[in-house]
Specification:
By secondary structure, this protein is of the alpha/beta class. Helices cover about 40% and strands about 20% of the residues. Helix 3 (about 60-70) links the parallel strand 1 and strand 2 (about 75-80). The relative contact order is 0.17.
Amino acid sequence: MIQTDPPDLATNWSEENSETFIDYGRYFVPDREEQIAAIRDLMPPKDEPWKALELCCGEGLLAGALLEKYPLCTVVGLDGSPRMLEQAHQNLAGYGERFIPRLFSLAARDWRKNTGPYQAVVSSLAIHHLDGAQKQELFQDLYSLLDDQGVLVIADIIMPADATGIALADASYAEAVRQQAFQLDGNYAFFDIFQNLQWNIFRYPDEVDKPSGVYEQLRWLDQAGFKNVDVYWLKAGHAIYGGRKHG
């Protein structure tokens, strides 16, 4: 049963966007399986039942990786798209009550209260929908949601510091998608779709996406209280970064 809260209206993400991402995500996200594996392997070892909170769980790929590797884990999967939650619920039905889907608004603060503690908070390709001030507020709230040994791991689009970096991210992102299209299908049809949809944020910025620089986000995490703040993976304008409640 999908538990519902107010839908996410703040990010301008539409159900059409959800359908596009479900259809094309494996082509459009650089090294998606490698990113999922990295987040999964950064989880703290536990020999007792524990809970992870996923912000914007999408169709459930990351949640599924956590549930498969960690039999004692329960994942609360939040998303602002009913279509995404429906797909995640279907994909993860075999895990029963270990996956709890809920509709939410990423920018709202009601879901951050009277919940937890969680042993991990994870998110993939979502937080860039918030502006800088909202990210800082979110990091502070997530710190409060974690238990003393908790970990926060974020995979997201990051904004390079200058025009040279943006040009490099643009080119490397396009090349990553081009290579993935050929590796998966032996042709470049889905790379052409990527180009036609103008999905490359570094070439076609829009009002939906508000990526921040990786350096400033690491500072915000540090200011929120996180320890061992670090970048774990970086490619084509996409990064995995985070920290721990205590060092």
